[in-house]
C-alpha cells in the first residue's frame, strides 16, 4: 500500500459494524479527478450524551442488560446548565438498545445523529474533502483504508449522470426501463425482439427478472456518479425495489456491486453506495422554482417548450395499450422522458444547485428539503465548541405560540402610482442586528444585566452567539457570488438564509424555542409598524404591507422619474433613521436595509370577495420592463392552477384595459360581453380545462369526492380499463351532466363557466372601482 493525498467530493455515506467488533466503520465514496474513491474510516464509536448526575444509574442499567458502553467525561453541558457525560458505543445497534432502555428514566441528547454525519460535520466537511491513508488500486476505483479526512471547501466536482425512467402497469409490474446519459441511449423492453429504425438501442428482455438483471449490468458498466429522474426515488426506484423483492432479486446498482437500500417513513430514504440519486421535482422545489404543478409534462412544456409523447388523462391506459400492441412507441416514449429530464437539469442548472447546496450545508447531494438537518449541520459543531450539547424537542418547557409575519390591512382601490419598499432579508437581518441565537438566549438569560432585550422575556448575549456571525459570512459570500456572476451559489445562500427563521420557528427542530422565533417576528412587527409611521409623517399614505414589504401611495401626477427618486429618498431616510434608532436604544449596529423595489403604475388592490374589506396577498400592478408595460399578478387567478386558461386570459384582458391610458367603463362592458358570447359559441372550448393532481389513490376517496375524482369515477363506468395513479394530473371539464374527463366530444355547461370563471373576476374589478353600471345581467 502507498500513502497519497487525494481531493474529492462525497457522493454517498454509510456506516456499519466492523467484523472485529472494535468499532464502527464509516464508508464514504468520492468522485475525484482520479476516478471513484472508496474511503474507509475504521474503529469509530457512536455517541449520545446524558446528564452527568445519571452516570451511575445508566452504567448499572446497561451492565445489567449486558450492553457495553464507554462513559467519558466531556466538558459540555445542557442548556439548563446541567453537566453532561458522553456514552460511546462500538456498534449502532447497541446504541439503539441503550437508548430504548434508558430513555424512560433520563434525558438522552443527540442520539438521533448518525455517526457518518457527525464525523463530517464536526470536521466542517461539506462535500469537498482532502483524504489520505493506505491507498490501493482496485478494479474500477481507488480504496483508501485508515483514512484521515479534512475539509476542502473550494473543490467543485465534475459529475457523470444517467437519466432513468421506468414504465409499468398500475400494480407496478415492469414493462420497460429507459437509460439515457453518460454515453448510453437504451431502452430495456420486455417482449419478443422487433425490427426497428429508432435512433437508439432497444434491448429486448424475456421477463422482469431478465430486465432487472440487464438493468444492473447497464448501470454498473456505465458507472455514473449520479442517477436522475422525475420522482425517481419515491416512484421509479421504489417500484424497482418492490419488484426485485417480489422476484427474489438483489439490486446491486451501487459501486463495487453493492446493493440498493430503500427505507420508508416520513419520507423515502435511498442509499446507493458510490452513487447519488437526485430527484428533479425535489431539486426544483428546493431551488425555489415555482410552477402550478411539477409533473414532467408541465415542466417540460414550461421550461423546454416540449411535450411528452403520451399526453391526456388516459396516460396509464395508453402505456398499457402500447406495451401490448405497440412496444416501439412505448420505447420512444420511455426514452423521451429520460431526455426531457436531462434537458431540464441542464437548462435550469440543477446539478450546479445541488453541488453548491452541499458545499454550504454539508447535506448529501440527494438530500432535498432537510432545512432542519442543514441547520443542525451548520450549528451543532459550533455549539459543541462552546461547550453545549443540543437540546431535545420541548426542553424549553414553554407552550405559547410565536406569531407569524406582520400583514397590514390593505386599502383597496385603483391607484396611479404605488412604490414598494422591501426590507432585504428582513428576518436574517433582525437575527444579526439583535443577536438572536439559541446559545445567545441561554447566555443572555444567565447574564441579563448587559443583554439585548427580545420579546416574551427573551434576552440575548451581545458577545456569545453563532448565528449573527454565520449570517454575516453568508451575506458576504452571497454578495461575492453576485459580483462574480455565480447565480446558483447566490440562490442557494438566499434559500439558506431565509430558512434560518423557519427552522427556529419549527417545532420539529431541536433548537425551537418560542422566545427565539417570537423575538424575530415581533421585532419584524415593530419594524414594519414604525417604518409605516415614519413614512406617513413625511406625508405619504401606506396602503398595504406584508412581512417585509411596504406599499406607498404617491401623487397621481408624478412622472416615473419623480416616483423613482422618491423611492430612493425614502430608502435612504428609513435606513439612516433605523441606524440611529437602534444605536440609540440598544447600542447596536443596524443591519436592516430597506430597498426601493418596484414602481407600479397603475396598481390595483381588490377587496375580499363579497366584502368591502381590502384583500391580503392579492394584487395586480403594471411595471415597465425593457421599455414595455408588463402586468404583475400576485395571488390572483392568473397565477393559480385551479383556474382555467379562459379565466386567466379574461383577467389579463380586463386589467390591460383597466390600466390603459384611454380607459373608460364601457370598455369593460365590451370585453365582458365579447367573452360571454364567444364562450357560448364554443370559441374557448380548448381553454375550459381544469387540471388537478390526484392527491390520493382513487380508492381512498370515500366521503369527500372532489370534481376531478367524480370525473374519473364517472369515466370508469364506461371505460373500465381507464387507469390513473396517485400524483397524476387529471384534466376535466364541466358538462351538462357535471364534471367529466376532458375529451374533444364534451358538451360544455357554459353557464357554470360564466358563474365560476368569468363573473367572479369581473365583479372583483367592478366592485373595487365602485361602478354600478356593470351588473350580473351582462353575463346572461
TrEMBL record:
Keyword flag Transferase: yes
Reactions catalysed, as given in the entry: DNA(n) + a 2'-deoxyribonucleoside 5'-triphosphate = DNA(n+1) + diphosphate
NCBIfam families, per database record: PRK05762.1-2
Enzyme class, UniProt record, top EC level: transferase
EC number: 2.7.7.7
Domain DNA-directed DNA polymerase family B exonuclease residue range list: 107-299
Family from the record: Belongs to the DNA polymerase type-B family.
Keywords: DNA replication, DNA-binding, DNA-directed DNA polymerase, Nucleotidyltransferase, Transferase
SUPFAM superfamilies membership: DNA/RNA polymerases, Ribonuclease H-like
InterPro entries: DNA-dir_DNA_pol_B, DNA-dir_DNA_pol_B_CS, DNA-dir_DNA_pol_B_exonuc, DNA-dir_DNA_pol_B_multi_dom, DNA/RNA_pol_sf, DNA_pol_B_thumb, DNA_pol_palm_dom_sf, DNA_pol_type-B
This protein's encoding gene: polB
The keyword Transferase appears for this protein: yes
Full protein name: DNA polymerase
Residue stretches making up the DNA-directed DNA polymerase family B multifunctional domain: 379-744
UniProt-listed CDD domains: DNA_polB_II_exo, POLBc_Pol_II
Amino acid at each position: 500500500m502507498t500513502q497519497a493525498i487525494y481531493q474529492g467530493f462525497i457522493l454517498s455515506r454509510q456506516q456499519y459494524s466492523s467484523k472485529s467488533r472494535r468499532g464502527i466503520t464509516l464508508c464514504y465514496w468520492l468522485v475525484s479527478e482520479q476516478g471513484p474513491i472508496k474511503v474507509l474510516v475504521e474503529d469509530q464509536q457512536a455517541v449520545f450524551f446524558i446528564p452527568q448526575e445519571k452516570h451511575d444509574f445508566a452504567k448499572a442499567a446497561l451492565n445489567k442488560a449486558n450492553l457495553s458502553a464507554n462513559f467519558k467525561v466531556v466538558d459540555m453541558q445542557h442548556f439548563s446548565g446541567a453537566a453532561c457525560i458522553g456514552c460511546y458505543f462500538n456498534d449502532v445497534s447497541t446504541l439503539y438498545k441503550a437508548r430504548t432502555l434508558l430513555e424512560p428514566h433520563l434525558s438522552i441528547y443527540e442520539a438521533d445523529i448518525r455517526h457518518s454525519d457527525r464525523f463530517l460535520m464536526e470536521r466542517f466537511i461539506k462535500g469537498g474533502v482532502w483524504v489520505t491513508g493506505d491507498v490501493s488500486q482496485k478494479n474500477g476505483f481507488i480504496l483508501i483504508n485508515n483514512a484521515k479526512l479534512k475539509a476542502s471547501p473550494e473543490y467543485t466536482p465534475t459529475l457523470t449522470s444517467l437519466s432513468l425512467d421506468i414504465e409499468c402497469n398500475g400494480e407496478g409490474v415492469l414493462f420497460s426501463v429507459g437509460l439515457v446519459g453518460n454515453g448510453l441511449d437504451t431502452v430495456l423492453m420486455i417482449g419478443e425482439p422487433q425490427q426497428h429504425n429508432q435512433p437508439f438501442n432497444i434491448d429486448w428482455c424475456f421477463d422482469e427478472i431478465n430486465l432487472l438483471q440487464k438493468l444492473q449490468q447497464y448501470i454498473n458498466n456505465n458507472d455514473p456518479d449520479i442517477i436522475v429522474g422525475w420522482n425517481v426515488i419515491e416512484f421509479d426506484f421504489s417500484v424497482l425495489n418492490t419488484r426485485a423483492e417480489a422476484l427474489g432479486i438483489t439490486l446491486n446498482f451501487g459501486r463495487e456491486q453493492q446493493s440498493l437500500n430503500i427505507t420508508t417513513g416520513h419520507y423515502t430514504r435511498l442509499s446507493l453506495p458510490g452513487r447519488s440519486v437526485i430527484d428533479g421535482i425535489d431539486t426544483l422545489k428546493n431551488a425555489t422554482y415555482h410552477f402550478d404543478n411539477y409533473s414532467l409534462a408541465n415542466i417540460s412544456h414550461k421550461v423546454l417548450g416540449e411535450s411528452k409523447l403520451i399526453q391526456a388523462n388516459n396516460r396509464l391506459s395508453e402505456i398499457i395499450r402500447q406495451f401490448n400492441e405497440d412496444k416501439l412507441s412505448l420505447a420512444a416514449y420511455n426514452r423521451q422522458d429520460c431526455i426531457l429530464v436531462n434537458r431540464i437539469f441542464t437548462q435550469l442548472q440543477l446539478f450546479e444547485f445541488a453541488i453548491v447546496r452541499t458545499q454550504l450545508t454539508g447535506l448529501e447531494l440527494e438530500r432535498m428539503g432537510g432545512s432542519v438537518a442543514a441547520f443542525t449541520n451548520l450549528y451543532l459543531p459550533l455549539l459543541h465548541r462552546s461547550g453545549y450539547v443540543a437540546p431535545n424537542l420541548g426542553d424549553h418547557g414553554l407552550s405559547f405560540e410565536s406569531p407569524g409575519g406582520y400583514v397590514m390591512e390593505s386599502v383597496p382601490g385603483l391607484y396611479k402610482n404605488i412604490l414598494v419598499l422591501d426590507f432585504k432579508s428582513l428576518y436574517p437581518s433582525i437575527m444579526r442586528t439583535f443577536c438572536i441565537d439559541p446559545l445567545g438566549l441561554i447566555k443572555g438569560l444567565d447574564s441579563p444585566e448587559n443583554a439585548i432585550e427580545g420579546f416574551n422575556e427573551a434576552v440575548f448575549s451581545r458577545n456569545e452567539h453563532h448565528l449573527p456571525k454565520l449570517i454575516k459570512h453568508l451575506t458576504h459570500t452571497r454578495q461575492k457570488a453576485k459580483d462574480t456572476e455565480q447565480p446558483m451559489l447566490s440562490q442557494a445562500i438566499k434559500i439558506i438564509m431565509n430558512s434560518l427563521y423557519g427552522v427556529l420557528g419549527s417545532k420539529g427542530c431541536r433548537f425551537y424555542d418560542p422566545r427565539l422565533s417570537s423575538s424575530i417576528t415581533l421585532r419584524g412587527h415593530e419594524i414594519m409598524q414604525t417604518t409605516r409611521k415614519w413614512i406617513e409623517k413625511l406625508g405619504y399614505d401606506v396602503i398595504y404591507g406584508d412581512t417585509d414589504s411596504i406599499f406607498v401611495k404617491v401623487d397621481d401626477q408624478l412622472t416615473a422619474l419623480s416616483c423613482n427618486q422618491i423611492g430612493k429618498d425614502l430608502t435612504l431616510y428609513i435606513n439612516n433613521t433605523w441606524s440611529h434608532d437602534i444605536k440609540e436604544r440598544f447600542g447596536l449596529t443596524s443591519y436592516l436595509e430597506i430597498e426601493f423595489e418596484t414602481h407600479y403604475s397603475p396598481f390595483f388592490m381588490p377587496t375580499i370577495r363579497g366584502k368591502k374589506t381590502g384583500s391580503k396577498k392579492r394584487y395586480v400592478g403594471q411595471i415597465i420592463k425593457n421599455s414595455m408595460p408588463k402586468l404583475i399578478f400576485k395571488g390572483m387567478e392568473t397565477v393559480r392552477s385551479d383556474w382555467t386558461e379562459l379565466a386567466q386570459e379574461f383577467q389579463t384582458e380586463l386589467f390591460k384595459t383597466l390600466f390603459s391610458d384611454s380607459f373608460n367603463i364601457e370598455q369593460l362592458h365590451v370585453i365582458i360581453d365579447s367573452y360571454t358570447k364567444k364562450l357560448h359559441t364554443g370559441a374557448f372550448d380548448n381553454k375550459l380545462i381544469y387540471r388537478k393532481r390526484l392527491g390520493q389513490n382513487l380508492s381512498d376517496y370515500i366521503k369527500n369526492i372532489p370534481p376531478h375524482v367524480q370525473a374519473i369515477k364517472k369515466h370508469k363506468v364506461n371505460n373500465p380499463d381507464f387507469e390513473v395513479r396517485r400524483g397524476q394530473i387529471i384534466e376535466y371539464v364541466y358538462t351538462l351532466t357535471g364534471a367529466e374527463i376532458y375529451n374533444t366530444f364534451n358538451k360544455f355547461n357554459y353557464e357554470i363557466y360564466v358563474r365560476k370563471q368569468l363573473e367572479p373576476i369581473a365583479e372583483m374589478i367592478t366592485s373595487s372601482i365602485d361602478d354600478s353600471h356593470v351588473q350580473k345581467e351582462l353575463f346572461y
